[in-house]
């Protein structure tokens, strides 16, 4: 099953742009994900288990390297890539 996740990051940091950019760069290093970045959110698409496993790794990495942040996500199963 395919999964699309719309993800927005809100760092607990006055200088919020660097942690957001670092997170997006990290997302783009993971194979077998399609990533679309927009001004207000990033959409991650791929096989359900791979996306969910990737999010687990990404959130942990973010908290360990970028500090605290709130992530807001919308999950849409059975969705292919955006055109």
Automatic annotation (TrEMBL):
Taxonomy, superkingdom: Bacteria
InterPro entries (alphabetical): MTH1187/YkoF-like, Thiamin/HMP-bd_put_YkoF
Domain Thiamin/hydroxymethyl pyrimidine-binding YkoF putative span(s) in chain numbering: 6-64
Pfam families, A to Z: Ykof (PF07615)
Name used for this protein in its record: Thiamin/hydroxymethyl pyrimidine-binding YkoF putative domain-containing protein
């Amino acid at each position: 099953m395919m999964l699309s996740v719309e993800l927005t990051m809100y760092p607990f940091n006055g200088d919020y742009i660097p942690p957001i950019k670092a997170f997006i760069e990290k997302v783009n290093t993971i194979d077998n994900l399609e990533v679309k970045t927009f001004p207000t959110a990033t959409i991650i698409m791929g096989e359900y288990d791979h996306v969910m496993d990737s999010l687990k790794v990404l959130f942990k990495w973010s908290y360990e390297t970028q500090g605290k942040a709130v992530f807001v996500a919308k999950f849409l199963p059975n969705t292919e890539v955006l055109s």
